[in-house]
Design goal:
- By secondary structure, the chain is of the alpha/beta class.
- It has ten helices and eight strands.
- The protein has an eight-stranded parallel sheet with strand order 2-1-3-8-7-4-5-6, with helices on both faces.
- Helix 9 crosses helix 10.
- The radius of gyration is 19 Å and the shape is globular.
- About 50% of the residues are buried.
Length: about 325
């Protein structure tokens, strides 16, 4: 399974800042150490150009990002202090999601070891999200006529308000969000399908809701490409989440999404989205679940194909 990663996915933040920036490196190292990925599976993106970014974001907003012109209020809304490294990182992570989507179109399944910055709107960023990587990837693939329709399965604990707003009037992109009803953002945007969850929802209720809605989402979307925001801030004890999923519940969630999407033949691109566990190592461990499940699915699919080929050869005598 191919995955995008760049050393500049992480940048320096002020001491005590709550965003777990080191999770990207920790996740990459963990997946390599476990053999889930090999060095040859890692794709290294280059920063996206302005023309591609303008498929989603306004020129005025991009100019502010490029020239350190965000006001103090805009940086507070973003939740991150502007830096040249942050601007570079945001373009790299968005490029990683586009690279991942291309790899998924070729091989069926791929991931970005970053991305899922779903609170970024066309004209501003918020909630630790600078650029909307999934929206950029969708618009670029549509512009190149590689896809017509896309689906966004957003299972972060927070609604992807930026993504919902960007595609609200677009009949060719289906946005599905299961999120905490009483969590950030307070003002929700309109997704094609929203499943609000009460505080404290655990594995059983969560998985029942997902299994009830996901097949219908995929039927309605009829997508040429599916993006999965596999946020792990649904875990019990997450700093910014109010749900109560166990590690096993998250693993089952990820497996269900991967198997359900791929069983229908749709290419699937996995991106991280949020996670704020007690430690950054624990956050990376939870993010690793989706990639372990994706790799296991790929091994099983290849194994089944090899068994079929062996049986066919034996029958041919």
């Amino acid at each position: 399974m191919k995955c995008a990663y760049h050393p500049s996915y992480q940048v320096a933040l002020p001491p005590g800042h709550p965003f777990p920036m080191s999770k990207y490196l920790l996740l990459k190292d963990q997946l390599l150490a476990e053999g889930v990925l090999t060095a040859g599976d890692i794709l290294q993106p280059e920063p996206l150009d302005g023309e591609t970014l303008e498929l989603v974001h306004t020129r005025e907003y991009l100019a502010k990002l490029a020239s350190s012109a965000l006001s103090a209020a805009e940086q507070r809304r973003l939740g991150l202090p502007w830096s040249e490294a942050l601007w570079q990182r945001s373009r790299l992570a968005s490029a990683g999601t586009l690279m991942t989507a291309r790899a998924a179109l070729d091989g069926g399944l791929a991931g970005n070891l970053a991305g899922g910055t779903h609170h970024a709107f066309a004209d501003h960023g918020e909630g630790f999200c600078v650029l909307n990587d999934v929206a950029i990837a969708i618009r670029k693939l549509q512009a190149e006529r590689l896809i017509e329709r896309a689906a966004v399965i957003d299972l972060d604990v927070h609604q992807g308000n930026g993504t919902a707003a960007i595609f609200e009037a677009d009949d060719e992109v289906f946005t599905f969000s299961m999120h905490g009803e009483r969590n950030y953002p307070l003002a929700k945007m309109r997704s094609n399908l929203t499943v609000p969850l009460k505080d404290g929802v655990g594995d059983v209720e969560y998985l029942q809701a997902l299994r009830r809605h996901l097949p219908a989402v995929l039927d309605a979307a009829n997508a040429d490409m599916v993006f999965y925001l596999a946020g792990v801030d649904v875990a019990a004890g997450d700093r910014y989440g109010k749900l109560a999923l166990t590690e096993e519940g998250i693993r089952q969630r990820d497996r269900w999404v991967i198997e359900t999407v791929r069983s229908r033949g749709a290419p699937l691109s996995i991106v991280l989205a949020g996670g704020y566990a007690a430690t950054r190592a624990r956050t990376a461990e939870l993010h690793a679940l989706a990639f372990r499940e994706a790799a296991a699915y790929e091994r099983g699919r290849i194994g089944d194909a090899q068994k079929f080929l062996h049986a066919a050869r034996s029958a041919a005598g």
